[in-house]
Design goal:
It contains eight helices and five strands, in the order βαβαααβαβααβα. A five-stranded parallel β-sheet has the order 2-3-1-4-5, sandwiched between helices. α1 packs across α8, α3 crosses α4 and α6 packs across α7.
Length: 175
């Protein structure tokens, strides 16, 4: 595949799982944005938030996306807040297709409830808080997305096949 695929969606929607599947079974290069930023900064996301603030972290995300402009055949698992900035959406559109993975708040909760690596959920780990935060973000996800795929209870391979089918269809309409 000549273009990149940017997976967006709320934390716990399945972006990392789908990205690994695309790497392992479809031969794509994988960039896990949060992991890459942590490696470059030498500290975990929670520490970046605590010491440097959310705005600093969001700038790091934008810089990483801009650095991918000349990449191809890469799947990028984006942090949940990436599409909230217009410059991030523009950077993703330069080199690929944006795929919104959506999942219900209850699904999100079940997937993230035992992890303490989500700074925005610390102290607010409940379905109601997740639902409210998702309500703020969903319009941004929808407006950024070229393709929307539901990731609730679906087999990861089926999700990947749907993504690739839609990406190829979307790309052939553009050409």
């Amino acid at each position: 595949m000549s273009q990149n695929i940017f997976l967006i969606g709320f934390m716990g929607a399945g972006k990392s799982t789908v990205a690994r599947e695309l790497r392992d079974h479809y031969g794509m290069r994988l960039i896990e944005m949060d992991e890459q930023i942590e490696a470059e900064e030498g500290r975990p996301i929670s520490q970046i938030f605590a010491e440097s603030g959310e705005a600093y972290f969001r700038t790091l995300e934008t810089q990483l996306l801009l650095s991918l402009e000349h990449e191809s055949n890469t799947v990028v698992s984006c942090g949940g807040g990436v599409p909230l900035r217009e410059e991030n959406v523009a950077a993703m559109r330069l080199s690929g297709t944006i795929v919104y993975l959506c999942a219900a708040p209850e699904t999100i909760y079940e997937r993230v409830k035992d992890f303490h690596t989500r700074p925005l959920l610390e102290g607010n780990m409940n379905v109601e808080y997740i639902k409210n935060l998702m309500a703020q973000r969903i319009p941004k996800y929808q407006s950024a997305a070229d393709i929307t795929v539901t990731a609730d209870g679906s087999d990861v391979r089926a999700v990947c096949e749907e993504i690739l089918r839609n990406v190829l269809h979307t790309h052939s309409r553009i050409d």
